[in-house]
## 1
Amino acid sequence: MHVDKTKCVGCGNCVAVCPMGAIYIGDDSLAEVNQEECVECQACYKGMSTENLPQQPTRFLRNLLAFFKLRFQPDPDICPSGAITRDELLWPRKVRRVFSDPQMPHESTGIGGRGTMEVKTNDVTGRIREGEGGLTVEFGRPGVGVYFRDVDKVCQALANTSVEFQLENPVTALMSDVKTGQLQTDILNEKVLSCILEFKIDIEKISEILKVIEDEVRQLDTVVALGLAIRCDSKGDDAVRSQLEELGFDAWRAKVNMGLGRPTNPTPAREEAIL
Ligand code: SF4
Ligand code: SF4
C-alpha cells in the first residue's frame, strides 16, 4: 500500500485506521506508509471511502482555515482525495496480504481470514480424540504483527518434539519440510498481522510442549496466545484446565462445541473417535 502524494491533503485520517501504525505524517505534512511495517491488510484502502476532492484547492482551504485557527476535517472514515493506493503484490510480499486481509482466501485452504477451520470443527472432523489435544499458537494479535522468521523458530523447535502439524493449515503449507518445521526461506522477512500454527499433541506431554513454546516465545519480538482443544468426558469435565493452572497459565473455557455436527467422511477410526 502507498499514499499517492499528488492526491494526499494531509488530513491524517488514515493514521488511526492502520492497525500496525504503519501510516504517518511525514516532514512534508503528507501521509506516508512505512513499507516494512505495512502488512497489506487493506484496512486503509477498504475501510475508508473517498470524496475525490482535488488536492490543491483542498490543501489551500485547509491552510486558509488553519490560519484563522479553524479546521477542515473530513469524517474519520474518509480519505477526502482518494490518495490511498493499492500496489500489485508479487511473491513473497503477497504473503503479507494473504495472512492479514480477512477477505483474502488462502491458496492452501481456499478459506478467507487466517485460513484455518481450527479445532472448533472437531465434531465433524473427529480429528482430536480422547487423550489428544489440538494446540493453536496464535502469533501477532492484537496489533503487533509477526515476522515469519519468528514463526519459523517456534515451528522448528516444535518439530523436534512429538507434535503432529495440522496439514490443512496455511502456516504448515508454507513449510518446506514438515518434518523439520522449516518455513520457506523466501518468506522469512515478511511480516503479517497474525497467523495461527495448529498441531495435535499427546495430552500427557502438554507440559513438555508448553515449555518448548514458552522458551522460544520469550525470545521473540511479538505476542502469542495459546488455544487448546480437547474432548470432555461424559460429564463435561476435563482434567487439563487444573493442570494448566498448576503450570502457571490462566486457562478459560472459551468455546464449547456441543458435538451436534454431522461427521463428514466418517472412517471407522473417526466413527470410533466421535462415538
Ligand atoms: S494496508 Fe494495512 S498495514 Fe498497510 S498501511 Fe494500510 S492499514 Fe496499514
Ligand atoms: S486520509 Fe487520505 S488525504 Fe488524509 S492523510 Fe491519509 S492519504 Fe492523505
## 2
Amino acid sequence: MALLIWTNEFRVGVDSLDADHIVIFSLINHIDEAHLSGTDERAIGRILKVLIDRAVAHFQREEMLMKRHGFPDLEAHAGEHRKIIEDLQILYEAYVNAPSAAISGEIVKVLSAWLEEHVLETDMCYRPYIPGEDT
Ligand SMILES: [Fe+2]
Ligand SMILES: [Fe+2]
C-alpha cells in the first residue's frame, strides 16, 4: 500500500510545481515499497539518487519563481531546501556505503516529513505570490 496519497491538500496551485511534487510523491512511494518489501534493498539507493536530482531541480525552479515574483521569505525557504538536500545526501551516502533496512527506514521518515512539513506548510506560503501557469 502506498505511503503517500496525493490529494488537493498538497496543491500549491502552480502547475509546474504541482507536477514536480507529484513525481516526488511517486518516487517516495517507490522507496517505501522497496523498503517494506525488503526484497529489493539495492534499488533504494538508485531511486534515492533520482529523487535527490529531482528535488534539486524542483528547489531551483521554486526559488527562481519565488524570486521572480518577489516572495519576501525566499532566504528562509531556500534554507529549508538546503537542509533537506543535506539530510538526503548524508542518508544517501550512508546507505550506499552500507545498505540497511534501518537506513532506508530513516530515509522514508525524512522524506515523509519533508512532504508533510515543507510542502504543506512552507510551500503553501508562496501560493498568493506565484500565478498558477508560471513555469
Ligand atoms: Fe516544493
Ligand atoms: Fe519549497
